[in-house]
C-alpha cells in the first residue's frame, strides 16, 4: 500500500472540505450582501413605503453610519474568532463548524425581518460571529486532515467557496435588490447555515486534535477515513511523535524558565500518589505524562512570548499578512464596487439592475475564475512568489484606477477594478489564511489563528468604516492609499515570509523559531515533501526512531532567540 504521507486528495477529504467550505461560502455571501442592494437599503432610491410593519429600506443618511453597518460584520467575526477558540480547545473543530452555523439562522431572522438600523446592525454582528468561528476553525481543520500535497488544492478551495458565495449573492441580488425582495437575500444565509449544521456531523474530527487530547484510537480511525486505501501507520506515528515533542518542549520550557512548581504540578497530576523527585530532577522525557498534559498556549501567552519555541517571527508574519490582505483594498472593491463604478458610468440608481451593478456581478465572476487559476498556480509556484506577484499586480492596478477616475474613462476603471480583484485571488486572497496552519506548532495553532483572524477582522471593519470618508476626502485619488499598502506588503513578503509550500509544518517551525529575521539566503530554505520522502527511502531509521524530518539547525547567531 502507498504511504499515506504522499497521497493527494481522497474523496472523503474532498467531502469534509466541502462541508467546511459552506462556512466560507456563507462568509462570502454576507460580505457581498450589502453591495448591490446598497443604494436601496441606504438611500431608498426606489422610494420609501411599508409592507405591513416592514419598511422598504432602512434609510441611512450618513455615510459614516452606513460604513459602520458594512463594517460591523467584521466586529462579529472578531467576536466569533475569540469565542470559538475556547470551544475548539475543549470540543474540537467539528463542534465549532457544526454548532456556530446556527448563528447564521438567528442572524438571518434579524436581517430579513429588520425594521430599524439597530436591528440590522445586530443581525450583521450575529452572522459575523458565525463567519468568524468558521474561518477560525476551517483553515486549520483542512490543514490537519490533508497531506502537504493535498493542502494546496483544498486550502485554495476555501477561498474559492468564499468567492463563489460573493458571486452567487451578486447574481441573485440583480433580481432581488428592489424592495421588499432584498429581504430574501438576507434570509438565505440562514438556509445555508442550517444545511451546514445538518450535514457536518457526517465529517470526521481532526486527527491531530484528537491526538493532542490523548484520544489515539479515535485519531487512528479518523486518519484512516481521510487516507482511505493508504498505509497510515508511519504518518500516524509522525503525528504522535510531533505531539509528544510539542508537549515535552512545553514541560522543559517551564523548567528552563525556573517555573519549577508549575512543572512539578503538571508531573504530579499524572504521577499522583507516587514518588516523583528522581524523575523530576533528571528531567527525563515524560511520554506518559505528556499524554495528559494540557499545554496549548492562549493568546495572551503567545503575545507575551511565553511559549516553548520562539514564535515571534511566525506571529509577525501571520499578523501582518492578514493586515495587508485587508489594507490591499479588496474589501473597498467588494463592499463598494457598485458605487465606485457608478461614479464613472453615472447611471440612475433606481433603474435596477444598473450597469454598475451588472459590472459588479461580472467582477465577482472574474474573481471566482481567478481563484481557480490561483489554485492551479499554487501547485507550481511557491507561497512567497504568489504573494509578491499578487501584491505587486494589485499595486499596479490601484495606480491605473486613479487616472481612469480622474479622466472619467469608464472602460479603464472597469478593467482596472476587474484586474485588481482578479489578482487578489491569485495569492493575497487564499494564502494569508493558511499561514497560521503552515508555520505554527500544534500547541500554539489555535491562539495564532485567533490573533491573525482578529487582526484581519479589525482591519476589515476599519476599511468598511473609513473608506466612505477617504473616498470623500481623496476623491478620485483614493486608490493611491491602497497602492502604497500593496507596495509595502510586497517588500515585507520578500524580506520576511518563508516558503511553506509542500513543507512539513514541524520543519518550518524548527527553522524559523529563532526570533524575527530576514529570510533571504539558502540557509532559510527547506526541502519540499517529495525530496524529504526520497531521502527517507535511502535511510533506515534506528528502532523506535521517528520518520519526522531531521531537525534543522539554522544559524541564529545574529538573531536574538530568547522570547521576552
UniProtKB/TrEMBL annotation:
<feature type="transmembrane region" description="Helical">
    <location>
        <begin position="355"/>
        <end position="374"/>
    </location>
</feature>
<protein>
    <submittedName>
        <fullName>General substrate transporter</fullName>
    </submittedName>
</protein>
<feature type="transmembrane region" description="Helical">
    <location>
        <begin position="315"/>
        <end position="335"/>
    </location>
</feature>
<feature type="transmembrane region" description="Helical">
    <location>
        <begin position="95"/>
        <end position="115"/>
    </location>
</feature>
<dbReference type="InterPro" id="IPR003663">
    <property type="entry name" value="Sugar/inositol_transpt"/>
</dbReference>
<feature type="transmembrane region" description="Helical">
    <location>
        <begin position="12"/>
        <end position="31"/>
    </location>
</feature>
<feature type="transmembrane region" description="Helical">
    <location>
        <begin position="65"/>
        <end position="88"/>
    </location>
</feature>
<keyword id="KW-0813">Transport</keyword>
<dbReference type="InterPro" id="IPR005828">
    <property type="entry name" value="MFS_sugar_transport-like"/>
</dbReference>
<feature type="transmembrane region" description="Helical">
    <location>
        <begin position="412"/>
        <end position="431"/>
    </location>
</feature>
<feature type="transmembrane region" description="Helical">
    <location>
        <begin position="386"/>
        <end position="406"/>
    </location>
</feature>
<feature type="transmembrane region" description="Helical">
    <location>
        <begin position="476"/>
        <end position="497"/>
    </location>
</feature>
<dbReference type="InterPro" id="IPR036259">
    <property type="entry name" value="MFS_trans_sf"/>
</dbReference>
<feature type="transmembrane region" description="Helical">
    <location>
        <begin position="182"/>
        <end position="203"/>
    </location>
</feature>
<feature type="transmembrane region" description="Helical">
    <location>
        <begin position="121"/>
        <end position="141"/>
    </location>
</feature>
<dbReference type="GO" id="GO:0016020">
    <property type="term" value="C:membrane"/>
</dbReference>
<feature type="domain" description="Major facilitator superfamily (MFS) profile">
    <location>
        <begin position="16"/>
        <end position="501"/>
    </location>
</feature>
<dbReference type="Pfam" id="PF00083">
    <property type="entry name" value="Sugar_tr"/>
</dbReference>
<keyword id="KW-1133">Transmembrane helix</keyword>
<keyword id="KW-0472">Membrane</keyword>
<dbReference type="InterPro" id="IPR045263">
    <property type="entry name" value="GLUT"/>
</dbReference>
<keyword id="KW-0812">Transmembrane</keyword>
<dbReference type="InterPro" id="IPR020846">
    <property type="entry name" value="MFS_dom"/>
</dbReference>
<feature type="transmembrane region" description="Helical">
    <location>
        <begin position="443"/>
        <end position="470"/>
    </location>
</feature>
<feature type="transmembrane region" description="Helical">
    <location>
        <begin position="153"/>
        <end position="176"/>
    </location>
</feature>
<comment type="similarity">
    <text>Belongs to the major facilitator superfamily. Sugar transporter (TC 2.A.1.1) family.</text>
</comment>
<dbReference type="GO" id="GO:0015149">
    <property type="term" value="F:hexose transmembrane transporter activity"/>
</dbReference>
Amino acid at each position: 500500500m502507498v504511504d499515506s504521507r504522499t497521497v493527494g486528495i481522497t474523496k472523503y477529504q474532498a467531502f469534509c472540505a466541502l462541508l467546511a467550505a459552506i462556512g466560507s461560502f456563507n462568509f462570502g455571501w454576507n460580505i457581498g450582501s450589502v453591495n448591490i442592494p446598497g443604494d436601496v437599503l441606504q438611500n431608498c432610491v426606489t422610494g420609501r413605503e411599508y409592507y405591513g410593519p416592514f419598511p422598504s429600506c432602512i434609510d441611512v443618511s450618513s455615510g459614516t453610519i452606513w460604513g459602520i453597518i458594512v463594517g460591523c460584520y467584521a466586529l462579529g467575526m472578531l467576536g466569533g474568532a475569540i469565542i470559538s477558540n475556547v470551544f475548539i480547545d475543549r470540543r474540537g473543530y467539528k463542534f465549532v463548524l457544526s454548532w456556530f452555523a446556527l448563528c447564521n439562522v438567528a442572524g438571518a431572522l434579524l436581517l430579513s425581518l429588520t425594521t430599524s438600523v439597530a436591528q440590522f446592525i445586530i443581525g450583521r454582528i450575529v452572522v459575523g460571529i458565525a463567519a468568524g468561528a468558521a474561518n477560525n476553525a476551517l483553515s486549520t481543520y483542512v490543514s490537519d486532515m490533508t497531506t502537504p500535497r493535498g493542502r494546496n488544492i483544498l486550502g485554495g478551495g476555501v477561498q474559492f467557496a468564499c468567492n463563489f458565495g460573493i458571486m452567487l449573492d451578486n447574481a441573485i441580488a440583480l433580481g432581488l435588490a428592489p424592495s421588499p425582495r432584498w429581504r430574501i437575500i438576507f434570509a438565505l444565509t440562514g438556509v445555508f447555515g442550517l444545511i451546514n449544521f445538518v450535514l457536518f456531523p457526517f465529517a470526521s474530527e481532526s486527527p491531530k486534535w484528537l491526538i493532542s487530547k490523548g484520544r489515539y484510537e479515535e485519531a487512528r480511525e479518523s486518519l484512516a477515513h481521510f487516507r482511505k486505501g493508504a498505509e497510515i501507520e508511519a504518518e500516524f506515528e509522525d503525528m504522535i511523535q510531533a505531539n509528544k515533542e510539542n508537549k515535552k518542549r512545553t514541560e522543559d520550557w517551564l523548567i528552563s524558565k525556573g517555573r519549577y512548581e508549575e512543572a512539578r504540578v503538571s508531573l504530579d497530576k499524572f504521577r499522583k500518589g507516587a514518588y516523583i523527585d528522581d524523575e523530576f530532577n533528571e528531567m527525563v522525557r515524560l511520554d506518559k505524562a505528556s499524554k495528559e498534559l494540557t499545554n496549548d498556549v492562549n493568546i495572551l501567552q503567545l503575545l507575551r512570548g511565553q511559549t516553548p519555541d520562539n514564535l515571534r517571527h511566525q506571529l509577525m508574519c501571520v499578523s501582518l499578512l492578514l493586515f495587508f490582505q485587508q489594507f490591499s483594498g479588496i474589501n473597498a472593491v467588494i463592499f463598494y464596487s457598485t458605487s465606485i463604478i457608478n461614479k464613472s458610468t453615472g447611471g440612475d440608481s433606481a433603474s435596477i439592475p444598473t450597469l454598475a451593478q451588472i459590472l459588479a456581478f461580472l467582477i465577482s465572476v472574474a474573481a471566482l475564475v481567478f481563484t481557480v487559476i490561483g489554485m492551479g498556480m499554487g501547485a507550481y509556484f511557491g507561497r512567497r512568489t504568489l504573494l509578491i506577484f499578487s501584491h505587486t499586480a494589485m499595486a499596479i492596478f490601484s495606480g491605473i484606477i486613479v487616472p481612469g477616475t480622474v479622466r472619467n474613462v469608464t472602460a479603464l476603471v472597469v478593467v482596472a477594478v476587474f484586474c485588481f480583484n482578479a489578482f487578489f485571488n491569485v495569492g493575497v486572497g487564499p494564502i494569508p489564511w493558511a499561514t497560521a496552519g503552515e508555520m505554527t506548532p500544534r500547541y500554539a495553532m489555535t491562539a495564532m489563528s485567533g490573533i491573525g483572524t482578529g487582526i484581519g477582522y479589525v482591519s476589515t471593519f476599519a476599511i468598511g468604516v473609513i473608506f466612505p470618508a477617504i473616498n470623500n476626502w481623496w476623491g478620485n485619488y483614493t486608490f493611491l492609499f491602497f497602492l502604497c499598502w500593496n507596495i509595502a506588503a510586497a517588500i515585507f513578503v520578500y524580506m520576511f515570509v518563508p516558503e511553506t509550500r509542500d513543507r512539513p509544518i514541524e520543519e518550518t517551525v524548527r527553522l524559523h523559531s529563532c526570533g524575527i529575521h530576514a529570510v533571504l539566503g539558502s540557509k532559510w530554505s527547506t526541502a519540499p515533501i517529495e525530496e524529504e520522502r526520497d531521502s527517507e527511502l535511502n535511510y533506515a531509521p534506528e528502532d523506535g526512531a521517528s520518520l519526522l524530518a531531521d531537525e534543522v539547525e539554522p544559524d541564529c547567531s545574529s538573531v536574538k532567540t530568547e522570547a521576552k
